[in-house]
Specification:
Elements lengths: L5 E8 L2 H11 L3 E8 L2 E10 L8 E6 L12 E9 L2 H13 L4 E7 L2 E7 L5 E6 L25 E9 L2 H11 L3 E6 L9 E5 L8 E6 L13 E8 L2 H13 L8 E2 L3 E7 L5 E9 L18 H4 L2 H7 L9
Parallel strand pairs: 1-4, 5-8, 9-12, 13-16
Antiparallel strand pairs: 1-13, 2-3, 3-4, 5-9, 6-7, 7-8, 10-11, 11-12, 14-15, 15-16
Length: 324
């Protein structure tokens, strides 16, 4: 078995409206699903992605109203990358960020690629990475109605960085259980720490990498708004997901078992440094209950929550997500 790459990353916001404005009006992503956290229906769960929400293009947010500031640290998912088509796109994004007062470090090089480290309005740690030299997992297709020109638009998730105090336990799970391959290392352009290790799965490239940074003397991260909750990795289908469940259980890693999220099926577990990893199937996808032309406009609930719609909607602050 081999994981196909990144599926999605889920993070925390304190304000769904401000989050929606940033990720659609500044980053130009499409809101493909406006739903709720299935484990706590009092909070929004917003899904941003490419034109139809292809697996590997999806950045999601749980709204925790009043969530405090994140104190960055160890045992965390410490950076999320977003792919753009080429180096020229990064020049466009630098101009856009500077015009819109988005905090950024300018264009740098990381693992042989051009990148821009930047932050959203809640200090979410983000990276734009150029696919100029990418030969691995294909990116998605930006939405034609985005505020960003399609040839400059974000095409999906890029490498996700983990920060841990000790490499060995995490590496053992990545290579020994999840079948990642160690494919390189580089020095961080933002922390000047010892080498960051690169692990690759599937066809490789920007859409199939986890980067692991070791910070033995760093305090454990205190999560809040702007922190990442978990990273999800792509599995072909439910048959294969059940095989992964067997493997993870054989390793005596506590796990959730297979969970039906309606838009995909999932399995969750924590690796030894405490980072939450999800394995998620590619299908059935976000068009299961909405027309592709109108994704994300209404509150979408899976069938097992539909009977509680009135009660659920009453707890949520209205969020207008219809295209103007």
């Amino acid at each position: 078995m081999e994981l196909k790459g990144l599926h999605h990353v889920s993070a925390i916001t304190a304000n769904a409206k401000n989050n929606y404005d940033f990720y659609t009006q500044i980053l130009g992503l499409r809101l493909v699903k406006k739903s709720v956290n299935q484990d706590d229906t009092s909070m929004y769960h917003l899904f941003y992605a490419d034109e139809i929400g292809r697996p590997g293009t999806d950045l999601t947010f749980f709204e925790i109203v009043g969530a405090g500031h994140t104190y960055p640290g160890n045992n965390s998912i410490s950076a999320t990358s977003l792919r753009v088509p080429d180096d020229d796109a990064l020049v466009y994004w630098i101009d856009r960020f500077n015009e819109m007062d988005v905090e950024n470090n300018g264009i740098e090089e990381q693992f042989g690629r051009k990148v821009i480290h930047f932050k959203d309005h809640e200090d979410q740690r983000l990276v734009l990475v150029s696919d100029q030299t990418n030969e691995g997992v294909a990116g998605g297709i930006p939405w034609s109605n985005s505020v960003v020109p399609r040839d400059m638009g974000i095409t999906g998730l890029g490498p996700v960085k983990l920060t841990v105090p000790d490499l060995e336990p995490t590496e053992r799970i990545l290579t020994g259980v999840l079948s990642f391959r160690k494919t390189g290392e580089y020095t961080s352009p933002v922390t000047d720490m010892p080498k960051i290790q690169v692990y690759t799965t599937g066809k490789g490239g920007t859409g199939a990498e986890l980067h692991v940074e070791v910070r033995p003397h760093l305090q454990k991260e205190r999560p809040g708004r702007g922190s990442v909750h978990h990273v999800a990795l792509r599995v072909e289908d439910e048959v294969e997901l059940n095989e992964w469940k067997k493997r993870i259980s054989q390793e005596r890693l506590p796990n959730s078992g297979v969970v039906d999220r309606y838009y995909f099926k999932s399995l969750y577990f924590r690796e030894p440094n405490g980072i939450l990893i999800e394995l998620a199937t590619d299908g059935p996808g976000f068009a299961t209950d909405e027309d592709i032309e109108h994704l994300g406009e209404q509150i979408a609930l899976p069938p097992f929550l539909e009977r509680d719609r009135e009660e659920i909607e009453a707890k949520l602050k209205p969020l207008d997500t219809k295209e103007k």
